[in-house]
Amino acid sequence: MTSNLRVRTTVEYIIYKLKSLNFTIKPASGHLSPAKANYKTTKSVLMDNTEYGIVYAVHIITVQFGSVVSKVCECLLRRGPLSSRDISRLAESEISHNQVKDILYLLIQHNCVQAFSIEPPDGSESKAVVQYLVLFNNILHRVRYNKFSRVVNEELGRECGIVLDGLLSNGRLTLGQLIERDRDSEKIGEIVIRGSLQKLVAAHFVERIPSPEPVLGNKEQEPAKKKGSKAAKILKEPETLEERVLEAAIPVEAIRFPHVFVQDSNSSIADNDSNADNDSNADNDSNITEGKRKERDVDLSDPSNEVIWRPNFEEFIRRLRHKACVEIVKERRDEGCAIVLRAMLEVGRSQEKKVKTDKSVPMSVGSIYEEVITTIPGRTMLQERVEACLDQLSATSSYLPAFVIEVDGSYIVDFKAIISIAQKDEIEAVVMRRYGKEAFRMFRYLTMEGRFVETDRIADAALTEKKDTPQILLKMWQDGYLHMQKFAVTGGTGYTPPFLLWKVNKLIVTRQMLDEMYHASLNLSLRLTHELESEKELLLLSNKKDVVLEGAYEERLIKIKAKRLLLSSTRFRLDDALMLFANF
Amino acid sequence: MSKRKRADPKLSGRDPNEAHEKKLLDMIRSKQGAGATMYELKGDKTIPPTMFTRLVQSLKKKGLIKEIPTMNNKGHKHFLAMEFEPDKELTGGEWYIDGTLDVSKIEDLKAKCVMILERHRHRVVTLDVMCGYFVKEEKLSVDQTKEILKNLVLDNQIMEVKSNGLNEFASTRIGEVCYKLTGKKSGNGEARGGAFASIPCGACPHIGLCTPDGVISPTTCVYFQKWLEF
C-alpha cells in the first residue's frame, strides 16, 4: 500500500512537471524484460519449478534412474498431475501402460511421486481416476542426501546415520527390511536398528509413509463460505493442488510419529497397504473421503501390520534452515549472537508448524538463557551477556535489519529477515560481478527505495554518469533483474523521449536467480560428467591395486581429482544458496 | 529608375533589430535557468527566421546572454540570460564539470570519509561531525556531504545507524544519525561472497544462451575451461 502511494507520488510529480510544460501524458504498460515478458506475479507461477528447475530435476532422475524413468517424470513435471493412461499417451517416447505403472511405483517408492484421486461429483457414476503428482522438491532433495545424513550423524550418532542411509537409498522400508539389509552390510544388530529407528522417529527425521492415495473432496461441491466468517479466517485453505494433496496424504501427528511402535521384524517385505505394490488397493481406496482416510490411518497403527518408514524431508529442511540462520548471524554479527540464536531456535522448534515460518513463537529471556547454558559454547555465558546479544540482534541499521523482535519483554526470531539478508547478499554479489560497481549501487538504491524511480534520480543517487545510466539499467532489465515502466510524453514542441521508471521487483528477481541457479547446478553436474568421462580410462587404471601411475599420468590424475573436488564442492555450496531461495 | 535610398541608421536614432533583440532576450529570460535552445527560439514566428543567428550573436557580444552546453548532448547548446545560473538538468549538478561527472573528486572524497571513520577512536562518526569537516575543509555543502555518505552506504562500505547511547555510541545523542564502517575492521560481520557469483555461470553474460547441447554449453564453455585450469 505504502509503496503504491510512493509510486503514485513519483508519477504525479512527473505528470505535474510535464503538464506545467504543456505536455500530455499517456502512461504505457509496465515493461517486463523480453525474456521475462511471460511472467505473471500470481501465486500459482511462483512455485519453485522454473524452466531450468524442471530440466535440472529431469537430469537428476536421468542420472539416477535412467532415461525412460526421466521421460515419465518430465511429462508429469511439465503437464502437472496425470493418470497412468494419460502419461503413456503423452510421454514423448513410446512407453507401454504397464511400463508407466512400474515407473510410477518406482518413483513412489523413492518418494518422488504421490498418487491421489478427486472425489467424483454427487450422483455421478464415473469412478474416481487415480492421478499422479510429481514432487519436484523431493527430486531435488536427492542431491542433498549427504547433508541430511550429516545432520543425523551429528545429532543422533553413527547408528542412526546408518539407518537413515538405508531409508534414503531405498526410499521406503519397514523395520524388517532395515534389519534384513543390515545383515548384508553394516551388521549393527537388530536391537540397535530398532532403537535408532525409534530415535529417528522421535526426532521427526523419519516418518510413517503418507496415505498411498488420498481422495480429495470435489471443490465444486463444497458450499460457498460466508464472507468474513470466523471459520474462514481460522481455517485457511491450502492454495495449490500439491499442498492440498500432501495435506490430505499426511496422517495426524500421533500416527505419523508414533511414540511407541511394536514391530514384527520378521514380516514379509511387501507391504499390503502400499499402493506401490498393490493396484487393487488403490481401486478400493478411491471411493473413500478424507475423513475415512484418517480412520484407515488409525487402523494402520495396529502392530500386526508392518509399518513402512521414510525420511521426513520437511524436518531435514527445517534443520538446515536453522543451521543456515545460525551461520548467517555468525557471519553478520558474532559468535555470541549465533549461540543465543541457536538456543532460541532450539526452544521454539517444537512450536513450528511449517518449514517456511516467518517468525518464531515469543520466548522469554529466562527460557533462552536456560537453553544457552545447556550447550558447550554457551556454558560460560552470563545472563547479562545473553541480554546484550539479544539487544545486538534486535538492533537495526541501513546495513542490517533486526534479526530478533522484542515484544513486551519476549523475543521472536524473525526468520524472514535473516533469510532475506542472505538472499540479498547472493543477488547483489551476482549484480556486482556481472554488471559492475555502478550497477551494484543502482541496484542497491532501487532495493532500498522499493518503488519506481526515474532514470536521472537513480544517476543522482548512485553518483554515476547520467549518460551511461540508462544503458546500465537496460542491461539489468534485459536479464530480468529490474522492472521498467515507460511513460510516453506527447504534445509540446518537438519529440520528447519517454520517461523511464525503474524498480526492483523482488519476486521477479528471486525467480530469475532461482532459475539461473538451477541452470548453474545443471551445468556443474554436466561438466563434472564430461570431465570424468574424458579421463575415464585413467580413473579406472588408478583404481587398480597393482597399477602405479607415474610422470604425465600421475599429473593428469591429480588434475582430474582436483577438478572433481572443485566441481563437487561448488555444486554442494551452490545448493546451499539455492535452498535459500527455494526451500527456506 | 529611381533607387530607394537606404535609411541611415545614424539618422533614424534607433536600431531596427533592437525590438527583435529585446523580444528574444525576454524570451530567453522567461526560461530562467532552464535556458532555451535555438529550436525553441525559432518557434517564435514574429521574428524572421534568417535573423536568429545574428540576433543571438549580438546578444552574446553585448554580454546579455550566455551559451551553455547540455550535459546529455554537448552539441546541443542552451541560451541563458546572464543573470541566471544553469539548472541541474543542464549541467548535471554540482558533481559535473563541463558536462562530465567528476569521478576522481568523488572517489577522493569517499576515500577521505572512510579514512575519518577508520581513524576515529570509536569508529563511529555522527553526521554533524562529517558535515563539519567536509564543509570546512573541502568546501562542500551539507547536501553534497550527505550524497557522498549515501554513496558509500550504497557501496556497502559504511552503514548508517541511529545511536542508542550505549558502548561505542556513548559520546553521541540517542537517536542521532551516525556512520560506521562495515566489515571486520569495525567488528562487524561481512556480506557473503555469493556462492553463485563465485562460479563462471554467476558472472556469465551468455547464461541465457547456454543449453546442454547448444553452441554455448557447459561442456564447451571457455569460462569453465579457464576456471578448471590447474
Textual characterization of the structure:
The complex is a heterodimer of chains A (584) and B (230). Chain A is of the alpha+beta class and 584 residues long. Chain A folds into 5 domains: 2-31 and 420-504, Arc Repressor Mutant, subunit A (Orthogonal Bundle), CATH 1.10.10.10; 46-133, Orthogonal Bundle (Arc Repressor Mutant, subunit A); 139-220 and 237-311, Arc Repressor Mutant, subunit A, CATH 1.10.10; 315-413, Orthogonal Bundle (Arc Repressor Mutant, subunit A); 508-582. Chain A has helices spanning 2-19, 51-65, 67-79, 84-90, 97-109, 136-141, 145-156, 158-170, 175-184, 190-202, 230-234, 241-249, 253-256, 279-285, 290-300, 313-332, 335-348, 365-372, 383-394, 415-435, 437-449, 455-462, 469-478, 506-534, 536-543, 551-582; strands at residues 23-31, 113-118, 130-134, 173-174, 206-208, 215-216, 308-311, 363-364, 404-407, 410-413, 453-454, 483-491, 499-503. A 4-stranded antiparallel β-sheet of chain A has the order 1-12-13-11. Chain A is globular and about 80 Å long. The relative contact order of chain A is 0.10. Chain B has 230 residues and is α+β, with helices and mostly antiparallel strands. Chain B folds into 3 domains: 14-94, Arc Repressor Mutant, subunit A (Orthogonal Bundle); 102-186, Arc Repressor Mutant, subunit A, CATH 1.10.10; 193-230, no CATH class. Chain B has a 3-stranded antiparallel β-sheet. Chain B has a two-stranded antiparallel ribbon with strand order 1-2. In chain B, helix 2 crosses helix 4 and helix 6 crosses helix 8. The longest helix of chain B has 17 residues, at 103-119. The interface between A and B is large, with 63 and 56 residues.
